[in-house]
Design brief:
The complex is a heterodimer of chains A (about 220) and B (about 725).
Chain A: E1 3-7, H1 14-25, E2 30-33, E3 44-47, H2 67-77, E4 82-85, H3 87-94, E5 101-103, E6 111-119, E7 135-142, E8 146-148, H4 151-159, E9 163-167, E10 178-182, E11 188-191, H5 209-219
Parallel strand pairs in A: 1-2, 1-3, 3-4, 4-11
Antiparallel strand pairs in A: 5-8, 6-7, 6-9, 9-10, 10-11
Helix pairs in contact in A: 1-5
Chain B: H1 11-16, H2 21-31, H3 37-46, H4 49-52, H5 57-60, E1 70-72, E2 79-82, E3 87-95, H6 97-102, H7 104-120, E4 125-135, H8 143-161, E5 165-172, E6 181-191, E7 206-211, H9 221-224, H10 245-259, E8 264-269, H11 274-286, E9 289-293, H12 306-311, E10 317-322, H13 327-336, E11 340-348, E12 352-357, E13 360-366, H14 367-371, H15 398-406, H16 415-418, E14 429-431, E15 438-441, E16 448-454, H17 457-462, H18 464-482, E17 485-494, H19 501-520, E18 525-531, E19 535-536, E20 539-540, E21 544-553, E22 570-574, H20 585-591, H21 603-618, E23 624-627, H22 632-644, E24 648-650, H23 658-663, E25 670-674, H24 676-688, E26 693-699, E27 703-706, E28 710-713, H25 714-730
The chains are: A alpha/beta (about 220), B alpha+beta (about 725).
Keywords (chain A): ATP-binding, Cytoplasm, Glutamine amidotransferase, Hydrolase, Ligase, Nucleotide-binding, Purine biosynthesis
InterPro entries (chain A): Class_I_gatase-like, PRibForGlyAmidine_synth_PurQ
Protein name (chain A): Phosphoribosylformylglycinamidine synthase subunit PurQ
């Protein structure tokens, strides 16, 4: 499985994502600079966490307009599995590849801790190695993870199985405790928690591994 | 634009620059003429306490700084130690006290930014941030505001830069009511043969400015940091710099990318006193001159004067000397990262700092005099009187005293703080905040660095010598408790006004204690910072020599942690408990007193007990360990039980009263837990090694029980421990 990690100025979980991908897929991902306009023909694209452009203007807003994003949007719309974690999720909503927006946490503070998530969808490219209703422990580290969408969108996301993960309890004010969502085709996942941080016992757990093995097992 | 150099130098202007009349005459002597306004400004910052260490240098020279594993000791941007396999750890701690009191968010944020730059300037990728914070008493009206702002500032900067903030310490005491302390530490990793230094070389080589543009922020920051606070200090808000962590992140990546080439001869960050101090230090270390054309300095604001450009403390800037002909290649890297890059001068053989602006020379000073002629004072100092030994009374109710202690401001969980820091980014944090020391893996290896920041200002105030020893010993013990071998320390020496003999006595006493401890533990000082004049309206802070210790673990799989791991394990106490409740946290928090001698540090015993415990962890006999410090035995037991969600039943003998057993802060002690048969072996090994050991009890159940003295459920302990800080801070909202 060939993958690419897109690197923006201010990305800071790019290395962590690359380490996780190499550990689980056995292949080093291609690191793609945001100013580039194309990259290798990969099976999987990751938008890592961080503070691209310092979160200035709006989280992810400037990165969504980086030169490389035209190509990312094209491939994601063509069906290439695409994962955005934390700032990557924010970028995906800014590009409209995913609906909704990530607002400032309800308590206004940055929050970094392990949180319990419930798996809401166990059939997607990203989640099939989990089972529905399973509780997993994955850390969050964000200031702006409070997911917002209008009621109609929220109903549709829940009704169509597009909610991948929910927080087991409220941590940032997100509507319906939504932690991660899929697009309607199921090939794009955006999530605030960091699965790439939970890939080894010594880091606090291995509940993030199944997300990557799901992709690997789907793509081969 | 007014020509500032036409301003006539008057005694008032000299005084405003924080210089005495004698110091001014010394400048005139060094220059052979009266300085102009720009030159006066430059001398004033270079000779400020903050930059010149004029009151402290004479004492700092006595500290031990060498060991076979020390690659670079004090004097460079940060200290460097060898951690084997061709790798080096680079680290330093620095204060940002006065700015943080005036503007807590930016003060703390730029403190983090500054110490990060000190470390990556030397070629290291920063891998961990730590901090040591002191606030006033909780009841003080500013404490919440300052705590909230400082924590948010540290997080705001470190989180964005993507370097994990893995731990630290926080104290509350009325002596910091008007003068909080914000000490930030960064640890980085580099290849041992790719360390970058600041000594400029090569006449004609280009002097290059990179990073952010220069603005008017932070002018006179170093001078502010060298004076006492008064009630109008808040008017100095404009002297606080503004940080931009996004630019810092770009600067780290750009510098490390350039450092991977061979283009750089010397590099130095622009910290306190900005362009002035960086160019003077680089030129001074290289024994060369600098000619700088200030017209080429990237500027954020219009009509800046030479004076302002030289003294600005705008953040996220670096100065480099490049090999000739490498400018274009270097420029391309900085342009890729969207950072300014400007050749602003060249190296000369004049030994002078020559500044030109608008085609005219606006400053011309002998570099040696800016550094070497700075005054050095042996200020009068009187030792702090040794206290009497006292008997400290028992509490009315032991259970309540325990809950009050671990559920009060001194010993409660700092979770509210560290959950605002990204402590996991970079994917190597294997010992998270809340343990004895933070542990960060050396990326891609089995090795790990343990890091701890410590000092007990109560002890330093009671007896500076013992307090100085204890601060060093406590970091050593905290590193040891994870299984790491302590290698070296950095420090941040926060004291009051050195012109007062009793304050200077505290300084000298603490340094003597630190020096003795470093020597006895083979634990040299490789970098540090001095922050004096921590006073408001004549009231000094408790002497606070914060120590940042770094240790190395060869096999991080063996790391020990505080939490009880299983039911039915035997709990052993390594070390002997004495009646040492003077200056203890029990005495302060429960009885509201501060009398008696602090615990005395026996450095031989410290070393023997610590080496014994570390060996147990290294050879896999023990993975549960906690050192004993503030709050003594019962606080340590409570930490272990809360972290592991497992209770314990222990007994203490009748050699001491129960409250002494529970709360005494005798040094050189550890708690360990192991399966019964392993514990039996350890017990014998300890006796053979002459290490005091006692069997305290067993783990298990949902209650922490000490004989018939204490019985508290884990649920009650946890609630008390976790709730204090969120409740306290919520009261502000």
């Amino acid at each position: 499985m060939k993958s690419a990690v897109i690197v923006f100025p201010g990305s800071n979980c790019d290395r962590d994502m690359a380490v996780a991908l190499e550990k689980i897929t056995g292949q080093k991902p291609q690191m793609v600079w945001h100013q580039d306009t194309t990259f290798d023909d990969v099976d999987f694209i990751a938008l890592p966490g961080g503070f691209s452009y310092g979160d200035y203007l709006r989280c992810g807003a400037m990165s969504a307009r980086s030169p490389i994003m035209a190509e990312v949007i094209k491939r994601a719309q063509a069906g290439v599995p695409t994962l955005g974690v934390c700032n990557g999720f924010q970028i995906l909503t800014e590009t409209k590849l995913l609906p909704g927006a990530l607002m400032r946490n309800a308590r206004l503070k940055f929050v970094c801790k392990d949180v319990a998530l419930t798996v809401e969808n166990d059939t997607s490219t990203f989640t099939k190695d989990y089972s529905k209703g399973q509780e997993i422990l994955i850390p969050v580290a964000h200031h702006d993870g409070n997911f917002y969408a209008d009621t109609e969108t929220l109903d549709r996301l829940e009704g169509e199985g597009q909610v991948a993960f929910k927080y087991a309890e409220d941590i940032n004010g997100a509507q319906r405790n939504i932690a991660g969502i899929l697009n309607d085709k199921g090939n794009i996942l955006g999530m605030m928690p960091h699965p790439e941080r939970m890939i080894a016992k010594e880091l606090g757990g291995t509940d993030g591994c199944a997300l990557f093995t799901s992709i690997l097992n789907t793509l081969g | 634009m007014t020509d500032v150099n036409s301003i006539k130098i008057t005694p008032e202007i000299v005084k405003e620059h924080g210089l005495t009349e004698e110091e001014y005459q010394r400048i005139v002597g060094a220059m052979g003429r009266e300085p102009n306004y720009t030159e006066l400004g430059i001398y004033s910052v270079m000779w400020s306490e903050h930059c010149s260490y004029k009151s402290s240098r004479i004492h700092l020279k006595k500290l031990p700084t060498k060991a076979p594993w020390v690659i670079c000791g004090p004097g460079e941007n940060a200290g460097v130690i060898d951690i084997g396999d061709g790798q080096a750890a680079i680290f330093k701690m620095e204060s940002h006290n006065h700015p943080s009191y005036i503007e807590p968010y930016q003060g703390a944020a730029t403190g983090v930014g500054g110490i990060l730059r000190d470390v990556f300037t030397m070629g290291a990728r920063p891998v961990a941030n730590m901090n040591a914070l002191r606030f006033g008493e909780p009841e003080h009206p500013k404490t919440r505001h300052l705590l909230a702002g400082v924590v948010e500032g540290i997080g705001g900067y470190g989180n964005c830069v993507g370097v994990p903030t893995v731990g630290g310490e926080t104290n509350f005491d009325p002596s910091y009511n008007g003068n909080i302390l914000v000490n930030a530490m960064t640890v980085g990793l580099a290849d041992a043969d790719k360390i970058f230094y600041s000594a400029a070389a090569g006449v004609g080589n280009p002097v290059v400015y990179v990073g952010s543009k220069t603005g008017r922020d932070g002018i006179h920051g170093a001078t502010m940091a060298s004076a006492e606070f008064t009630e109008d200090s808040e008017e100095k808000r404009p002297t606080v710099q503004v940080g931009d962590p996004f630019t810092e992140k770009l600067l780290i990546e750009a510098c490390l990318e350039l450092m991977a080439t061979d283009a750089i001869i010397a590099i130095q960050d622009m910290g306190a006193a900005g362009l002035t101090s960086s160019s003077v230090e680089m030129a001074s270390k290289g024994g060369v001159g600098f000619e700088l054309n200030l017209d080429n300095v990237p500027q954020r604001e219009e009509n800046m004067t030479p004076y302002e450009m030289c003294l600005s403390e705008s953040q996220e800037r670096m100065l480099m000397v490049l090999k000739p002909g490498r400018e274009e290649m270097a420029k391309a890297i900085f342009e890729k990262w969207e950072l300014d890059f400007a050749v602003i001068g060249e190296i000369t053989d004049t030994g002078r700092l020559t500044l030109t602006f608008g085609g005219e020379i606006v400053g011309d000073m002998p570099i040696a005099s800016l550094v070497e002629d700075a005054p050095e004072y042996d200020r009068p100092h009187v030792p702090t009187p040794v206290r009497e030994t006292v008997d400290v009374a028992a509490p009315a109710d032991l259970n309540k005293a325990v809950l009050d202690l671990i559920g009060g401001e001194h010993l409660c969980s700092r979770r509210w703080i560290w959950e605002q820091y990204d402590h996991m980014v970079m994917g190597d944090t294997i010992g998270r905040p809340g343990g004895d020391a933070a542990v960060v893996r050396v990326h891609g290896t089995e090795k790990a660095l343990a890091i701890s920041t410590d000092v007990t200002p109560r002890y330093c105030y009671a007896e500076p010598y013992e307090g100085g020893k204890q601060a060093v010993a406590e970091t050593w013990r905290n590193l040891t408790a994870t299984g790491a071998k302590p290698l070296a320390i950095t420090n941040c020496l926060n004291f009051g006004n050195p012109e007062r003999p009793e304050i200077m006595g505290q300084f000298v006493g603490c340094l003597e204690g630190m020096g003795d401890a470093c020597r006895a533990l083979d634990y040299p000082i490789v970098s540090g910072n001095v922050s004096l004049y921590n006073e408001t309206n004549g009231t000094g802070i408790h002497p606070t020599p914060a120590i940042g210790g770094v240790g190395l673990m060869q096999n991080s799989d063996k790391m020990a942690s505080v939490a009880f791991k299983a039911d039915g394990q035997t709990i052993l106490l390594i070390g002997e408990t004495k009646n040492e409740l003077g200056a203890s946290i029990y005495q302060k928090a429960i009885l509201g007193e501060d009398t008696g001698r602090p615990p005395l540090v026996d450095l031989d015993l410290e070393r023997r007990n610590g080496d014994f415990v570390r060996a147990l962890i290294e050879n896999g006999q023990v993975d549960t360990c906690h050192d004993l410090s503030d709050g003594g035995l019962i606080a340590a037991l409570a930490d272990m039980a809360i972290a592991g969600k497992i209770g314990a039943t222990v007994t203490v003998d009748d050699s001491l009263p129960n409250h002494v057993h529970l709360f005494s802060e005798t040094q050189a002690r550890y708690l360990i837990a192991a399966d019964a048969t392993v514990a039996e072996t350890i017990y014998k090994e300890a006796q053979d090694a002459g290490v005091p050991v006692s069997k305290l009890g067993v783990t298990g159940g949902d209650t922490l029980t000490v004989g018939d003295a204490v019985s508290l459920t884990i649920a009650d302990l946890t609630a008390a421990h976790e709730n204090w800080m969120p409740d306290f801070m919520a009261a502000a909202e």
